[in-house]
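From the pipeline queue, job 12 of 40. The input is one protein chain; the requested action is below.

Action: predict structure.
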Amino acid sequence: MKKYLDFIIKGIYAGILISMGGIAYLAIENKIVGSFIFSFGLLTVCMYSFNLYTGKVGYLLDNKLSYIIELLLSLIGNFIGTLVVGNVMRLTRFSSYIEKAQNLVNIKLNDSLLSIFILAVFCGVIMYIAVNNYKKQKDVIGKYMTIFMGVMAFILCGFEHCVANMFYFSIAGVYSFKMFYYLIVMILGNSLGSLIISFYDLKLKK
């Protein structure tokens, strides 16, 4: 039981850190600078080994079936973390963040499900490469540069990251049936993108 609770708690921390990256992105007008600072979220998640779903799902093929439970609990934790931060931020003076998030969310929810899925797949590819390189790269510069470049790439390209979007939905105050099934599509896309690359990675090991 303690192990399962730990998965959720580490997931909550990851959700909080990704949300902090999202706040920075909303706060900074320059998209390039904003995406660079957003990288703080993924970097700290990797440094502290917190449970970010998009950073862990790519290792599903390399683990036992019980790993699915860890993934699901981590995802629940991610949602709780983003939910808390998003709603707390709605209590602050930064109303401009809320308006910007609402505009961002409207773009996503007015897109087609196929488009959302494809963009989420590409994000999943980038996230696996960034996190896996951080874990395996011995060169310090290469280790950190992949995180920063990966996050900047998915943000500037407009790819869909399910946990980051959890935060945007939360701070925008958008909760609906449509939001949830769009979120599920994002999760599936992120998962497939990560697994496509990790499958090739596993073949290289053999």
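Job complete. The longest helix spans residues 177-205.
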